Amino acid sequence: MRQTGNPQTDSSGNTPAALLDLLDGFRRTKVLATAVRLRLFDLLADRGALSAAEATTALGLAERPTHMLLTACCSLGLLDRDPGTERYRNSAQAQRFLVSTGRHYLGGFIQLVEEQQYPGWEDLLTAIRENRPTVWDPASRPTKFAVDDATGEVRLFWNAMASVSSSVAEVVAHAYDFSPFRRLLDVGGGPGELGIRLCQLNPRMRATIYDLPAVCELTAFRLKERGLDDRLRTFGGDLLTDDELPRGHDLVTLTNVLHMWDERTNDTILRKCHAALDDEGVLVIAEAFVDDDGTGPQPAALMSLNMLVDTVGGANHSRAAYESMLARAGFSTVRRVPVPADAPAGVNGLLVARKSERPGHA
Ligand SMILES: C[S@@+](CC[C@H](N)C(=O)[O-])C[C@H]1O[C@@H](n2cnc3c(N)ncnc32)[C@H](O)[C@@H]1O
């Protein structure tokens, strides 16, 4: 092997730098989550730019860790430091997404990642060796969502969805022409962001958000609070155990829902969706699909492992796998619809399936 200046560099110029950078991933996650938990971004939004000493006092911390945290946040693009005044302020992205009073606050999702997913991922080895979730104990309940609302888990998950779903909904709503549709059933619709956005963009559309009763309670309250309950309603049910879904819809959507289950379970869910559609109805699946050749892309591949630590049997399936499931459920044609390359990690395309061969909307 030809040696270069760096003794660890091989003849192709490979160094360990990229791998060492990979190893830093957990540190980045923790800096972001900890700064949010300390309400650093709220502090700087309230008080404007602060010196390190002022931030130390306001946060009630020691000087040493505060300095380190401020430096790390600058290095990650979360804070800007004015070299003249030596004061720190929120970067534009922190100001938009990390201030708790903001409309685009991601705190709910960051909390879910830190409190639930992070500890589960710590035991990824067990999840892989034993093919089971590590975020929750499958011996204690049949599914992740079979929890007593009093545990707060439903609210934690709902808050997380509410904080990230609007960006996914925005992408989905613009990726396809939804204007011909009148009656949407958003299955596993969670906080209802997709239904809300589609109804805003398509004034003649009405939507039913179908989800577990405890989730629907939170969503119904939100719809009422925002004055949206005239065109959007919730329908509490369990898509695993209900014999059928509410019928009479020309559009059914499944956004980041089917990756929670294996193909056999999805076959059953898709058959129920098929029955819920009018003859010329259309089903839209939006997720982060794994490539058909099983090589990525990275957000979908990592989300798929997240389904290992978080579900029994779930996985981010490929478009080809869904095409087979849709065919088995009786759908006629399936179209692959792209989304912009800079779409948020939760969605990298749509699958649009027509119920029947007759000329319809797809
Ligand atoms: C990952 S979230 C996606 C939520 C929403 N589609 C979005 O994109 O924001 C999955 C949703 O499926 C719902 N869900 C899970 N199991 C369910 C079941 N058995 N019946 C109905 N909904 C269920 C969850 O409550 C949650 O709202």
Per-chain topology:
Blueprint: H1 17-23, H2 25-37, H3 40-47, E1 50-51, H4 52-59, H5 63-75, E2 79-82, E3 87-90, H6 92-97, H7 107-122, H8 124-130, H9 153-175, E4 183-187, H10 193-201, E5 206-211, H11 213-225, E6 232-236, E7 249-255, H12 263-276, E8 277-287, H13 298-310, H14 319-328, E9 334-337, E10 349-354
Parallel strand pairs: 4-5, 4-7, 5-6, 7-8
Antiparallel strand pairs: 1-3, 2-3, 8-10, 9-10
Helix pairs in contact: 2-7, 4-5, 7-9, 9-10, 12-14
The structure holds S-adenosylmethionine.
Uncertain ranges: none
Shape, per Cα inertia axes: globular
What characterizes the major β-sheet?
7 strands, mixed
Sheet-strand content, in percent, reads 5-15%
Widest β-sheet, arrangement of strands = 6-5-4-7-8-10-9
Ligands and ions found: S-adenosylmethionine
* pLDDT averaged residue by residue: 94
Structural class estimated from helices and strands:
alpha/beta
Number of helices: 14
Portion in helices: 40-55%
Label the CATH architecture of the largest domain.
3-Layer(aba) Sandwich
* CATH topology grouping of the largest domain: Rossmann fold
Q: What is the top-level CATH class of the largest domain?
A: Alpha Beta
- Rg (CA only): 23 Å
Q: Please identify which CATH superfamily of the largest domain we are dealing with.
A: Vaccinia Virus protein VP39
Distance between the termini: 57 Å
Tell how many strands the DSSP assignment holds: 10
Quickly count the domains. 2
Q: Give the helices and strands as they follow along the chain.
A: HHHEHHEEHHHHEHEHEEHEHHEE
